[in-house]
Request: fold
Amino acid sequence: MKIFVTGGTGFVGTTLAGELTEKGHKVTLLTRSIKKDATLPEGASFLQGDPREKGAWQKQVPLHEVIINLAGASIFTRWTKETKKLIRESRVLTTQNLVESLAASERKTALFLSTSAVGYYGFRGDEALDEESPPGKDFLASICQEWEAEALGAQDLGLRVVICRFGIVMGRKGGALGQLLPLFQKGLGSPLGHGSQWISWIHEQDLVRIYGFVLDRKDISGPLNCTAPHPVRNKEMTKFLGQVLHRPTFLPPVPGFVLKLKMGEFATTLLNGQKVIPKRLLDMGFEFTSPDLSGALKDLLSGARQP
Reply:
């Protein structure tokens, strides 16, 4: 199949593009700038364009059978007025422009796979959340609702739309582990705040396999919680990371007020969390290769251990 990907040069997109081309798909990666030293897997190509802005790139979108929308600025930063605007526009405007490009063409793409996040549910303590749970009311929850609403507009064009609500993606070349490893390798790892907040996570390979599952199953549409079936508390994740890396984690927890002083409003996402369950995937028979965080970390970090 011909597959169009926004955000394909990022952490998740790079891994996904490699897996898709390995299976014989032709992949077009939309990027704001093409680096001279950039390498691509065989079967992939770059298309230059900013997905937040209308442009010539939009004419290429309907020429593909599948659209995968991964674009979105990182939320892992201090939230200023400017960064909040970027977080929103990189998601909402990109999705608007993709749907607009499909509406303007007589040729209709078959499948639109758009990203969202477990932040959709807001902060709900120990409540187990599945795809039927209502949305939250905080900043990230409101962004996710707006983001998803734009993607679902493609249903009016006759497309099958799947919304992938990501948990924290655990991978070898970036994401949450990329930020945590330097601290833990120095023996500075510790829980955040009270440490009892839930972390809904997923191994990068299981995430990629979910995309393949959706491509193969024509009966899947609507939201999917892309998280492992066993979320963990922050203090459990801290313990598992220390064990895998053979580093101590006996330092006292980082106080919540310190995080808030350093990270501002973003600290609330670190100090709270969601206990998200991938109910629909489990009901449809999807089998996770890394359902437990301890095993996932052993797989991902075997080369990063300290003696």
Observations:
- DSSP finds ten helices and 13 strands in the chain.
